[in-house]
Amino acid sequence: MLKRATAEDLAQIKELCGNCMIGTKILCFISAYGFERDFLEVWVMLDGEVITAVMTKFYDDISLLMTDEADTQQLSSFLGMFFFKTLTCSYDAAKALNFNISSVKNGYVFIGDYDCAVCGSLEEDDYKPAYDLICKEIPGSFSAGREAYLSFLSDFTFRQRRNLARGVCTHTDGKISSVALTSSETENAAIISGVACDRSLQKKGLGKQSVLSVVNSLKKENKAVYVIALNEKAEGFYEHIGFKQTEKIAFVERKNYV
Fold it and tell me: How many domains does the chain have?
């Protein structure tokens, strides 16, 4: 059975989502916005009284986490009724649901040494240049344009005020030279994203400093730290600074999305 989730389901959702990257993303949505928002839907699949899958639809993007006990046929049919741009789930879940996978990225968890020089926190004046740097240096990570930036700013600052997101940056000659953000945080875990370094200043350790500075603050709060590597270069970078591959994340794009 599938139903809209309520606060009564939260304990089970936390138990299901507590130890993985997709679960961290889902829990952050719920922690930030609750269960009753026009732009956020939270659904659960039940086998009796046990939750076997949980899904969030944030605007036009779906995140899905399911167990081996989930009814894949029912879940696939249910998801086929949704109008979405992108669906994110584990690679195994995407295969079980027979989705046409658009891309697969490697997910990593931090296991290394995070001692480093601490970067400054991202301040209000840094938001726009940091966003522009990410768009420039990591194509496809964020969308360029004023509307996309304002959407990011609204969501990021909302989460930041609730201790569900954070950011650091370095400056060189008065300009942002590197940045690292957390896109999702919970009581126990966080996902680092939005990592970028000005290409003219690469190989100076600035990107490493930004990432490890965020890791430092998260580890002091006893949080697991995850990241998704967008390409082979990023994979080498994360492995070099102390991350270990832990899962494969699948992305499914709707071809008829407008």
Answer: 2
- Residue where a domain stops, chosen among 106, 138, 155: 106
Structural domain boundaries, residue 186: 112-241
* Same-domain pairing of 130 and 171: yes
Q: Quick: pLDDT tens for 172-205.
A: 999 999 999 998 999 999 999 989 999 998 888 9
pLDDT per residue as tens digits for the range 5-26: 999 999 999 999 988 999 999 9
Domain containing residue 172: CATH number: 3.40.630.30
Asked if residue 249 is part of any domain, the answer here is no
85 shares its domain with 136: no
The 10s digit of each residue's pLDDT in 78-118 is: 998 888 899 999 999 999 999 999 999 999 999 998 777 77
Residue 246, burial from CB neighbour count under 10 angstroms (0-12, 13-18, 19+): middle
Residue 125 domain-assigned (yes or no): yes
Higher pLDDT, 138 or 114: 138
In a domain, 65, yes or no: yes
Residue 60, pLDDT above cutoff 80: yes
